[in-house]
């Protein structure tokens, strides 16, 4: 008698669990998240962290699946924003550089020697300029949620140390597919050539290009010194923030709770990744030096020579970015 009753309860329990899990899977939804770099890099780890937090907080109702190596855009990272806007990709943790062809305001961060240090980055992203940049993204059909950081970009090459603009003379430098970079490296007398990250590594290996520019974390993890890049100059000429974002239709299809949760988890993952990236800079530099790379630091005077040589880029691009955004950023930097 007791046995039968507990059996019945057990069976009812099972049926209930089955019902529950059916309801659950009917609701469970997976969003694709594009990144350029994999989880070997802080950038990929930022996206994975976001996915982890979403899984935890949503109880499995909403999941993020990260697709690294620009695979959702066949390696062409400058198409990521358009793909997210059109709904081919649900979400992304992307670089301001790669999205700048579609969102001109994002060129703000690529202005050479404009944002000199971490405090300046935080003042810009956390202030009015950051708000204007997010509005610019939203006006183009994508919902921005939070900031992350690829880092300050440093230049490397296989020929010799770079400590003045003349040292770049005639060097073939791989740059990302955004026209501003073409202007910066031309102004410095180099011979810039645009290509995706996917194409950059073979080009460095074969010597088709002499140099490249990327944050220390990318240089370190991708072992760029092992493809002949033996000279590295620390010039902090620009910072490359990352942005966590979601396609607008996807965003509108979510409940308010889900939206709040997605934003909160993106902010947490972004803050976590920014702190980690910055903390790791000095050990990455030490590791790079240990592998035999010549590291050049600039005196104030040498730094100023680069600033002067790229002044024309600032003048050409500030109006394209928008005076309001540039002025807001400048004010935030001055007040930091
Ligand atoms: O292509 C690059 O250099 C990289 C990986 O840093 C970006 O996607 C901006």
From TrEMBL:
InterPro entries: DctP_fam, TRAP_DctP, TRAP_DctP_sf
Signal peptide annotation: 1-28
Keyword Transport set for record: yes
Top-rank taxon: Bacteria
Cross-referenced Pfam families: DctP
Keyword Transport annotated: yes
CDD domains named among the record's database cross-references: PBP2_TRAP_DctP10
Coiled coil segments of this chain: none
Keywords linked to the UniProt accession: Signal, Transport
Family, similarity comment: Belongs to the bacterial solute-binding protein 7 family.
Name used for this protein in its record: C4-dicarboxylate ABC transporter
Species, as recorded: Vreelandella lutescens
């Amino acid at each position: 008698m007791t046995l039968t009753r507990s059996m019945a309860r057990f069976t009812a329990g099972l049926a209930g669990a089955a019902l529950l899990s059916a309801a659950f899977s009917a609701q469970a939804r997976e969003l694709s998240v594009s990144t350029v770099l994999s989880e070997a890099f802080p950038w990929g780890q930022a996206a994975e962290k976001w996915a982890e937090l979403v899984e935890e907080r949503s109880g499995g109702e909403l999941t993020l699946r990260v697709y690294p190596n620009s695979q959702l855009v066949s390696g062409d990272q400058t198409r990521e924003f358009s793909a997210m806007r059109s709904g081919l990709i649900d979400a992304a943790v992307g670089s301001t550089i790669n999205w700048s062809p579609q969102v001109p305001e994002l060129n703000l961060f690529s202005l050479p020697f404009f944002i000199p240090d971490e405090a300046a980055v935080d003042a810009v992203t956390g202030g009015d300029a950051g708000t204007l940049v997010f509005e610019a993204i939203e006006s183009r059909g994508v919902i921005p949620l939070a900031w992350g950081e690829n880092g300050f970009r440093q230049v490397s090459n296989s020929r010799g140390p770079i400590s003045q603009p003349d040292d770049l003379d005639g060097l073939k430098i791989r740059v990302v597919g955004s026209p501003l970079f073409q202007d910066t490296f031309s102004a410095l007398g180099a011979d810039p050539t645009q290509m995706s990250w996917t194409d950059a590594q073979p080009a460095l290996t074969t010597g088709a290009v002499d140099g490249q520019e990327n944050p220390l974390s990318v240089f370190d993890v991708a072992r760029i010194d092992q493809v002949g890049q033996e000279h590295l100059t620390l010039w902090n000429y620009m910072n490359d923030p990352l942005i966590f974002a979601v396609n607008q239709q996807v965003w509108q299809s979510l409940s308010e709770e889900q939206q709040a949760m997605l934003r909160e988890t993106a902010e947490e993952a972004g803050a976590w990744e920014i702190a980690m990236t910055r903390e790791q800079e000095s050990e990455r530099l030490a590791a790079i030096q240990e592998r035999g790379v010549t590291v050049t630091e600039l005196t104030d005077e040498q730094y100023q020579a680069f600033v002067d040589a790229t002044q024309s880029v600032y003048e050409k691009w500030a109006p394209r970015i928008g005076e309001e955004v540039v002025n807001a950023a400048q004010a935030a930097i001055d007040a930091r």
